[in-house]
Amino acid sequence: MNIIVTSLFVEDQEKALAFYTETLGFIKKEDVPAGEYRWITLVSPNAQDGTELLLEPNVHPAAKEYQKKIFSDGIPATMFGVEDIDKEYNRLVEKGVRFTMKPTNMGHFSIAVFDDTCGNLIQIIQK
């Protein structure tokens, strides 16, 4: 069994697509109509056949409540790995990304957290 797709609730699919591709550097893999919304998946440029990230509209009341609650409690919705956290932090800050936690050493790894502008906190980690 393999993980092929993982979901991330977003407030606005078009805004999320722009942020995740233009700012973070993910590549759009799928973008097809799905009722009144779209099935939009992204992949890492380094693993284009790897796990896809689905930008899932948060239209269900439970999804909206979940997203708001974990955001307000400071809990990241997901985590992305980076090779050099300081370099990635500086690159994203230059692009206007707002961090809620600067790179912090946690022993065997370092983490940082930023606001994706789409209703989520995202953690990056360097192992």
TrEMBL record:
PANTHER family: GLYOXALASE/BLEOMYCIN RESISTANCE PROTEIN/DIOXYGENASE, GLYOXALASE_BLEOMYCIN RESISTANCE PROTEIN_DIOXYGENASE. Residues 1-127 form the VOC domain. It holds the Pfam family Glyoxalase. It comes from Mesobacillus maritimus. CDD domains: VOC_like (cd07263). The lineage of its organism: Bacteria, Bacillati, Bacillota, Bacilli, Bacillales. This is VOC family protein. InterPro entries: Glyas_Bleomycin-R_OHBP_Dase (IPR029068), Glyas_Fos-R_dOase_dom (IPR004360), VOC_core (IPR037523).
